[in-house]
Design goal:
The protein is of the alpha/beta class. It has one domain: Dihydrofolate Reductase, subunit A, CATH 3.40.430. The chain is 20% helix and 17% strand. Strands 1-9-10-8-2-7-3-4-5-6 form a ten-stranded mixed sheet, sandwiched between helices. β4, α6 and β5 form a beta-alpha-beta unit. The structure holds NADP nicotinamide-adenine-dinucleotide phosphate (NAP).
Length: 349
């Protein structure tokens, strides 16, 4: 994996240790077992080796089994990627307002979705999305994102999960990809503890209907209770079933559905500041339309699929395109791992 942007002067091997752009032996995701578990999931891309986190799990045949193994996709060649610490550093969440919006001093008007602590300042919630797209904009192939993914993509996917307090996902993706609870990953144990995080992120499923199978491990076996984010008018019997299974219901809207800004606010009130949205497109589109997204980590996959695949964001039109600025680009095997942050400029003209 190579860093293309911002360009650094670092030369592979200069430090005597595997460096950026140089092969770093990594068993699966960072020294952990390379075994990939079914079910972690996220866009149906699975968590990097190890099973890491969430796992999306994807049940074999249900989508994304992280690289290799049962999926038939190739295991990452030895020494092909950054180690997990390097990736985690590269994708660290902003810890302070000034870091998040370096050019926005004195201009916080746009920050309407954030929770303001009384008195002492504290870091605002930060909503990052992680999506994969083909060269022609496809956000899925035959209903799954796995065909767009790669071992390195899954490694990044898992690192992003491991950095998050909460993983937000639309019920469509949770159902279709067979989401499972996030798991604790040894490789991130110390980092998470130092950041005041529990061993694994909570999974927050956004749903109006609550038409979910509450007997699944996502609800019955999580390390951290799974959250169901819904509106106040959600079906009472389904809420009762969710609670009986161990899930926690979070209201983020007055009707049956949720409002994206309310989702951010409600999760922040529960102490979740580092938020990761894993789609799907219908949910992401609403956050984009409401200008509630701080950052997009987009994997550009070197494939063309044509067809009628959905883009990564669908939903309400925005009057003026939301403007983002490029923060970094990594490359591995033709895949580009881009990171864009919401521009402090109002929007594209
Ligand atoms: N390219 C990628 O990175 C990526 C990532 C994720 C998924 N995908 C692909 O995207 C497809 C699935 O995505 P999708 O867009 O169809 O579904 P989705 O966004 O994951 O889920 C849609 C569902 O979320 C709930 N929802 C959405 N907005 C809501 C609101 N405002 N209030 C309450 N609930 C709300 C509803 O659930 P209820 O029906 O339960 O009310 C709705 O049916 C799959 O093909 C998957 O492979 C791709």
């Amino acid at each position: 994996m190579r860093r293309l942007f911002p360009v650094t002067e670092e030369t592979p091997g200069r430090t005597g240790r595997p460096g950026v752009g140089e092969a770093v032996a990594e068993a699966g995701a960072g020294g952990e077992s390379a075994a990939r578990e079914p079910g972690v999931a996220g866009r149906d891309r699975a968590a990097p080796g190890t099973g890491a986190v969430p796992e999306a799990g994807v049940v074999p045949g249900a989508g994304r089994v992280p690289g290799g193994g049962a999926s038939g996709r190739p295991e990452p060649p030895e020494g092909s990627g950054w180690d997990l610490d390097e990736l985690a550093d590269a994708y660290a969440y902003p810890e302070a307002e000034a870091e998040a919006y370096p050019q926005a001093e004195g201009n916080r008007d746009r920050d309407r979705n954030r929770v303001r602590a009384e008195g002492a300042p504290r870091p605002s919630p930060w909503l990052r999305a992680n999506m994969v797209s083909g060269l022609d904009g496809a956000g899925e192939h035959e209903g799954r994102s796995a065909p767009l993914s790669s071992p390195a993509d899954m490694r990044v996917f898992g690192v992003l999960r491991a950095l998050a307090d909460v993983v937000i996902v639309g019920a469509g993706t949770a159902r279709g990809e067979g989401y499972r609870p996030a798991r604790a990953r040894k490789a991130f144990e110390a980092r998470r503890a130092a950041a005041g995080q529990g061993p694994a992120p909570a999974i927050a499923v956004v749903s109006a209907s609550l038409d979910l199978d509450f007997s699944r491990p996502l609800f019955t076996e999580p390390l951290v209770p799974t959250l169901l984010v819904t509106g106040a008018a959600a079906p009472g019997d389904r809420m009762a079933a969710a609670r009986a299974a161990g899930a926690q219901v979070v209201f983020a809207g007055a009707g049956a559905g949720v409002d994206p800004g309310e989702v951010v606010r409600a999760l922040a009130e529960r102490g979740h500041r580092r938020m990761l949205l894993e789609g799907g497109p219908r949910l992401l589109g609403q956050f984009v339309a409401e200008d509630a997204l701080d950052e997009l980590c987009l994997t550009l996959s070197p494939v063309l699929t044509a067809g009628r695949a959905s883009r990564i964001a669908l939903g309400p039109d925005v009057a003026v395109p939301r403007r983002f600025e490029l923060v970094s680009v990594l490359e591995d095997d033709g895949f580009l791992f881009t990171r864009y942050r919401r521009s402090t400029e109002a929007s594209a003209s």
